[in-house]
Amino acid sequence: MTSTVEPIGPLQFFFFLTMSMVTGGVFIWPEAVLSTAGNNALWAITGSIMLALATTAALFVWMSLTGPGIFVDRLHQTWGFLAWPWILSFSLLRVVLDAALVTLFSQMLSTIFYPLTPLWVLKLIILAEAAWFGGRRLTILSRNIQFWFPVLAFSFFLLASLAFGNVQSWWALRPSSHVVLTPLTQAVIGTWFLWAQTDVLLTISHFMRPARAGLVRKLTVAAILFHSVVIVVIYMITVGALGPEAVMTLRWPLVYVLSNLSSHTFYLSRPGLIILLTWTGGMVFFSASHLFCLGMNLSQLAARSFRWTPQISWGAATVEFGGSFLLPSAAVASHVVLNVFDPLSLVLVSILLTVSIVIRLVMNRQRIRKNTTF
Amino acid sequence: MMARRLAWSLSGLLALPLSGCWDVHPLEDQGIVLAIGVSHGSQKGALRWTFTFPNVTLSPSSLTSVKRREQYYDVTVHASTFGDAVMRAQQKSSRIIYLGQLQGLIWPDTLSWRQLWPIVAALNAQGPIPKTFWMMAATPPLQAVMKFVSPQVVAPRTYLATYFDCVHCQPFSLAQRGWEFWSHSLTPGVSPYVPLVNLEHGNVAIRQIVVYPSSGHPVLYSPQETEGFGFLSGKVKRAALSVHWNGHTVELTKLHDGRSVSVRKAPGGIMVNETLRVSGFIGEPPAESSPLRSQNLIRRLAQQRIVTWCLAAIRQANNTRTDPFGYAASVLWSQGKRTPFLPIHAHITVSVSLKGEGMLR
């Protein structure tokens, strides 16, 4: 397929991919993993990172067995007309996840920072900005992410470094010697929403120049490792400061911990407020990267071109906005993310990657046999 | 062109609510609560709540003309819950009560955990209240402590908030922020504690802690036990102690400590091995003997004294089934258990190193 989309550089690819995972869901971390895994939480975090690396490795195997193209092109090459149900299922799950995360985010803003502002205003602003960015050209979106990502990452690590001063429960940061498999597995599955970026990786890697598979692999692993550091740091500053039992009672433990920062070193007496900028930026670009990839794939599927990307991006954002009203509370939204999206999406990705690799191996072998015969 | 103009106008409109400008509340309409005091009420089940506000007539230009005693004023109500108390205080006030600048929560040392916990939980559940306020017990009357004014402190800061914020002002860092106390309350193996604030001869004195066991009445640690607790939990900031040697009193000042702790499960409790490395400055050593020899003896006496305080604190913890040190927390977490109290068997080693200050040998 000949692309009409301008290419992006390796650094832009790295920032784009990094922004598309963890960022938008990080504010509810690590309450769920602790509640499910208990004192096996650190093993669950290790398992979660392994899960992300394993699915990405499988993804690369599939990529190596298919020709160039974005997600939907590779689905076509592997599944033919069955690419439709796959892409629609992925799109639906993506919309469900983003709607739930935007609901959780706006609930958090409303509870802690803007108690008098109506929820719909917060949701509308975030989704409108995300759709606006998601409807831009790839180069424009990538440049924006390239500018904002370092700013957001710096402010996060600055606050995290200040929060280390409040860590007192060092004992809670030691991995347990009694590993119980069932809750551990459940907890690992419950973290999948952080890493679900199959569509994003397969979509934007096609536009990276130089188009070297090895470079894409290295940058993807680097993105996963970067976020591994982020989630471990968050675990340390939340569980280390409050203790695991207290973290389990909080819906937004990271917000709680950062809002407790008080500093006499900076001019700002409550530096934790900087996180508001970090999260809002993170959430907007997290959603924008998903909307952009959703638009590209659906547009390519329906019209064999990318020209409907902005319209689909705005349409999906509208559906997310409407869908968020079906999630009346943060508890329901958390339930949707952890108990609906996570298992469904993980099962879907596992089946897709396993079967796709087998299909492509068989197809490639048949082609080789045909070539040898003739 | 039209579409672009529309887009700009819409984004401008969207930006308006972003800053919250549309629901602005003027400062002069706000009743900013600086401290809350909770004590036993006259009626059964009801508590007495005192809300302290900065005097609204204060402005930078009037600071010098308003008497120090008039910098703050109170609103007192009787209510059984925090929410009810805020509502009643609101009824008595013509300004909107704002809790986003809360600096302290104070209660008498006799208030039971059963009465205290709902208040702590309610304050923690309120989103806009910053959990960085200081928590403390005080000897009644609470108003005297809450409105204690120092010439060094300018309203709307309260004296106790500035005192606890100042890390160099305290010999032992016994202060507890709202979030610390709340998280200790929820952690098995840790007994929450707060400093006890007293007014002695018109000055604030903090020498003891009040510890809350999982059941029963609050436990008051004596000044020696509190110092032992301070050393054992690494809270020494700028402590001082004096030792009597050969008819002399030698002052050791600016003491601070480093520590290493190992805790393991033992039959019928927990075994704690703790090593304290205390360092500080020595005043003028006695002149009768060689400075080196006298320093070694003084150091040994100081070590003995600190060990005595530490053991007194451990003894008090075991007697009252409290663990403000949080020793048991690691054992209970690794075992996934919730046991109210594990007796502490402690092996404590203290080493003191002293330096001379100034030009004296």
UniProtKB/TrEMBL annotation, chain A:
One GO BP: spore germination
Pfam annotation, one family: Spore_permease
TM region(s), chain numbering: 12-29, 41-62, 83-106, 112-135, 147-167, 187-207, 219-242, 273-293, 314-338, 344-363
Organism annotation: Sulfobacillus benefaciens
Compartments in which it is found: Membrane
Keywords: Germination, Membrane, Transmembrane, Transmembrane helix, Transport
Similarity annotation: Belongs to the amino acid-polyamine-organocation (APC) superfamily. Spore germination protein (SGP) (TC 2.A.3.9) family.
Full protein name: Uncharacterized protein
Major place of residence: membrane
Protein's membrane topology: Multi-pass membrane protein
GO cellular component terms, A-Z: membrane
Entry annotated with the keyword Phosphoprotein: no
TrEMBL record, chain B:
Gene Ontology process terms (BP): spore germination
InterPro entries referenced in this protein's UniProt entry, alphabetically: GerAC_N (IPR057336), Spore_GerAC-like (IPR008844), Spore_GerAC-like_C (IPR046953), Spore_GerAC_C_sf (IPR038501)
Keywords annotated in UniProt: Germination, Lipoprotein, Membrane, Palmitate, Signal
Domain Spore germination protein N-terminal: residue ranges: 23-198
Location of the protein in the cell: Membrane
Entry-linked Pfam families: Spore_GerAC (PF05504), Spore_GerAC_N (PF25198)
Domain Spore germination GerAC-like C-terminal: 222-330
Gene Ontology CC terms, in alphabetical order: membrane
Topology with respect to the bilayer: Lipid-anchor
Family in the record: Belongs to the GerABKC lipoprotein family.
Protein name: Uncharacterized protein
